[in-house]
Design a protein that fits this description.
Blueprint: H1 10-33, E1 42-47, E2 53-56, E3 65-69, H2 71-81, E4 90-94, E5 97-101, E6 104-105, E7 110-114, E8 118-122, E9 131-132, E10 148-149, E11 153-156, E12 159-165, E13 168-171, H3 175-182, E14 194-197, E15 200-210, E16 217-220, E17 223-233, E18 250-260, E19 266-268, H4 273-279, E20 283-294, E21 299-303, E22 311-324, E23 326-331, E24 339-360, E25 378-399, E26 406-418, E27 427-430, E28 432-440, E29 473-478
Domain Rhamnogalacturonase A/B/Epimerase-like pectate lyase: 57-101
Signal peptide: 1-33
Keywords: Glycosidase, Hydrolase, Signal
């Protein structure tokens, strides 16, 4: 499908199409999130692995009253079920109720399943949040120089891990953490809702995540990851509540997600300055599709700013955004090193943006003063095509680095309808090079128009990645105490 470059009553058509797409998307999400088919005491769900054994949290004295701590119950249940790792794996069922809990650790060959009326409530007792060392590719915490609080749902060195449900809810109750952050009262970095480290074969699906203390989903140093059918909601002014942040990961699929957040909806990362360069784990082979985003102060998709291990082969398509600062943003700086290359984006429908295209080569938040000023990032092979946007303040702000320009930029078949109070100059380009075709309003001189015959010039790979060939199975679970 190609987007038309010109059509009558363009603004009205875009608005109608955008609203229709969101309604259709939410309807689909409702259907997807209820793939678990409840029939009496048995339900079905889809997963990368089914389990031979199961238990309910209530079997381990869990209490779903919203007041009783279930941290020990969760950990006891998971530790007990870990004995089945080599015998078909196990599922822990979280029934209807409000389950207050601090951080707990998952195990391999394991499924955590939340009933549609189950709510995990993150504990407000900071004693229920263990402190971990900083990530080796960061060298320090992001909120403070020291360590970091373990995520609510955490795991490391695992394989075959599933966190799913029938659109059950995980509520991070983040306001306490946001207040401490704004007040400068944090000794350690805030926890995330879900973090899996050094792990392989991961599924996170069909859940609603609310009010995370910081990032929502953070796979790091991991591979073969599917994030699917997730709804993420946080106040748009909440600090650093990024939606999904693949970090030094390989072979990732993010699809059919709805995100409202105070930061980037998807932020692709791979380590910070000299620590990320030394660690040297890139994020690569990433698919993002059918994403709906609202984030007035950040991007739909951000590449960086912590990208010192490298980012490559990112494929994003069928993106809808409303009232979001920018569509795709590249963030880097002198001292980052690393690279962002082979990025492919197509079919964006955007409404009310500050910028459509944004690249910053001067994003100067450094881990410490020991970064290498000669470590220059490489940004090349950035492809955007088939974009329709309305009510935009400025089409693009593209700022490379003097002596280290961003190259190989390709933008084609783009129609941007500027806002009534838009910038007089629609394109700002410094230290960038590339080509365009069929772009309105006309781009800057460093991105010369190649004519209508080149409208299909910007690449999008025809092959599929291995993560797209992952097969889901139909699994079932019987509730013995229905």
């Amino acid at each position: 499908m190609e987007f038309s470059r010109r059509s009558p009553m363009r603004a009205q058509v875009i608005k109608v199409i955008s609203v229709f797409m969101v309604v259709a998307f939410l309807s689909q999400r409702g259907a997807e999130s209820r793939k678990a088919n409840f029939q009496g005491s048995m339900f079905e769900y889809t997963a990368i692995s089914c389990r031979a054994h199961s238990a309910s949290l209530t079997d381990f004295n869990g209490v779903g009253d919203g007041k009783t701590s279930n941290t020990k119950a969760f950990q006891a249940a998971i530790d007990n079920l870990s004995q089945h790792a080599s015998d078909g794996g196990a599922l822990l069922y979280v029934p209807p109720g409000k389950w207050l809990t601090g951080s707990f650790q998952l195990t391999s060959h394991f499924t955590l399943y939340l009933h549609q009326d189950a709510v995990l409530l993150a504990s407000q007792d900071m004693n229920e949040w263990p402190v971990l060392k900083p990530l080796p590719s960061y060298g320090r915490g992001r909120d403070a120089a020291g360590g970091r609080y373990a995520s609510l749902i955490f795991g490391t060195n695992l394989t075959d891990v599933i966190v799913t449900g029938a659109n059950g809810t995980i509520d991070g109750q983040g306001s306490m953490w946001w207040q401490k952050f704004h007040g400068g009262k944090l000794k350690y970095t805030r926890p995330y809702l879900i973090e899996l480290m050094f792990s392989d074969n991961i599924q996170i699906s069909n859940l609603t995540l609310l009010n995370s203390p910081s990032w929502n989903i953070h796979p790091v140093y991991s591979s073969n990851i599917v994030v699917q059918g997730i709804t993420i909601i946080a106040p748009v002014r909440s600090p650093n509540t990024d939606g999904i942040n693949p970090d030094s990961c390989t072979n990732i699929r993010i699809e059919d997600c709805y995100i409202v957040s105070g930061d980037d909806c998807v932020a692709v990362k791979s380590g910070w300055d000299e620590y990320g360069i030394q660690f040297g784990w890139p994020t690569k082979q990433l698919v993002i599709r059918r994403l709906t985003c609202i984030s007035p102060y950040s991007a739909v998709i951000a590449l960086g700013s912590e990208m010192s291990g490298g980012i490559e082969d990112v494929r994003a398509e069928d993106i809808v955004a409303f009232n979001t600062e920018s569509a795709v943003r590249i963030k880097t700086a002198v001292g980052r090193g690393g690279y962002v290359k082979d990025v492919y984006v197509k079919r964006l429908t955007l409404h009310t943006m500050k910028w459509v295209f944004l690249m910053n080569g001067n994003y100067k938040a450094h881990a410490d003063g020991h970064y290498d000023p000669n470590a220059l990032p490489e940004v090349k092979g950035i492809n955007y095509r088939d974009v329709v946007a309305e009510n935009v303040s400025m089409a693009a702000r593209l700022e490379g680095i003097s002596g280290d320009p961003f190259t190989g930029i390709c933008i084609s078949n783009v129609t941007i309808n500027v806002a009534a109070k838009s910038k007089k100059v629609q394109w700002m380009c410094n230290d960038v090079a590339g080509i365009t075709s069929g772009v309105s309003p006309p781009p800057c001189g460093s991105l010369p128009d190649q004519g209508p015959e080149k409208i299909g010039a910007c690449d999008f790979p025809a092959d599929s990645l291995a993560i797209d060939r992952v097969n889901f199975k139909k699994c079932s679970y019987t509730i013995t105490n229905a």
